[in-house]
């Protein structure tokens, strides 16, 4: 394993009670990201400290939202694999689907999952608003998660149709998460969402204040949603 993988795992170990298995997998994820990023431009965060805390630690904050063991989880707009890869590494009993519209990113995620011995990761290429209308994916997941993809009133229409009633949608947001949640209140209601809770947390060293916006799915999403993406973007709920 190269130095950046080892250093990333060492930084994580200082700030997070990670198992040996999670640290080993973190090494592989960091090594792969560092090797591929110059060619794919997956992230601007490339130092061991940034990868350990702003990618992996941040992704693992999801574990405070709910229990993921035995759950079918979809990461909407997974990009370079965050939070999908760290979540799968931390909870091998979860089935994690990395969803993105860019095949090259999903190829990286799949190869990294294989290298890190994460058989609980699968990939799904497509647009969430289209997949959410397909019977095989609509309301097929226990939990949808997403990290920094779009404003919440847009992200909700991409994500909630994928979640089965009784499940959760968890959006990872910055310090203005409460503001976005208030803006998206009507969207949550129209899409079958119920109670909304906010879980604040801090990223160590960097002093960043983040939020998990947790939305319960209390009822089925009406058949008119999700709308075509042009309508979603032009007139968010």
Give a topology summary.
Layout: H1 3-15, H2 20-40, H3 48-60, E1 72-76, H4 84-90, E2 95-100, H5 103-115, E3 121-125, H6 128-131, E4 141-147, H7 152-159, E5 163-173, H8 177-183, H9 185-190, E6 193-203, E7 208-217, H10 229-234
Parallel strand pairs: 1-2, 1-4, 2-3, 4-5
Antiparallel strand pairs: 5-7, 6-7
Helix pairs in contact: 1-2, 1-3, 2-4, 2-5, 3-4
Your description of this structure?
The chain is an alpha/beta fold and 237 residues long. The chain is built from ten helices and seven strands. A seven-stranded mixed sheet has the order 3-2-1-4-5-7-6, sandwiched between helices. Helix 2 (20-40) packs antiparallel against helix 4 (84-90). The N and C termini lie far apart (47 Å). The relative contact order is 0.13. The mean pLDDT is 96.
Mean pLDDT over the full residue set: 96
- Reading the helices and strands in chain order gives HHHEHEHEHEHEHHEEH
Q: Could you say which structural class the secondary elements and strand pairing correspond to? A: alpha/beta
- How many E-type strands? 7
Shape: globular
Total of helices: 10
Q: Strand portion, in percent? A: 15-25%
- Which residues form runs of ≥5 with pLDDT under 50? none
Radius of gyration: 17 Å
Helicity level, as a percent range?
A: 40-55%
Q: Brief overview, please?
A:
By secondary structure, the protein is α/β, with parallel strands linked by helices. It is built from ten helices and seven strands.
Fill in the keyword field for this structure.
7 strands, alpha/beta, 7-stranded mixed beta sheet, 237 residues, 10 helices, single chain
């Amino acid at each position: 394993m190269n130095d950046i993988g080892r250093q990333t795992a060492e930084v994580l170990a200082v700030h997070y009670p990670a198992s040996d298995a999670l640290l080993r997998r973190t090494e592989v994820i960091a090594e792969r990201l560092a090797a591929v990023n110059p060619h794919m431009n997956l992230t601007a965060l490339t130092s061991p400290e940034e990868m350990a805390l702003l990618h992996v630690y941040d992704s693992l904050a999801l574990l405070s939202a709910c229990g993921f063991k035995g759950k079918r989880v979809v990461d909407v707009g997974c990009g370079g694999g965050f939070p999908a890869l760290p979540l799968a590494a931390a909870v091998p009993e979860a089935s994690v689907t990395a969803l993105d519209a860019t095949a090259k990113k999903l190829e990286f995620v799949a190869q990294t999952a294989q290298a890190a011995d994460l058989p609980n990761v699968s990939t799904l290429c497509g647009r969430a608003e289209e997949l959410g209308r397909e019977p095989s994916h609509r309301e097929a997941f226990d939990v949808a998660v997403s990290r920094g993809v779009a404003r919440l009133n847009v992200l909700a229409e991409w994500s909630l149709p994928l979640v089965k009633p009784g499940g959760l949608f968890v959006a990872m947001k910055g310090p203005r998460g409460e503001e976005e949640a208030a803006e998206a209140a009507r969207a949550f209601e129209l899409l079958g969402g119920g109670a909304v809770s906010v879980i604040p947390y801090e990223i160590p060293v960097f002093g960043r204040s983040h939020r998990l916006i947790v939305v319960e799915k209390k009822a089925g999403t009406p058949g008119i949603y999700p709308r075509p993406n042009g309508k979603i973007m032009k007139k968010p709920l």
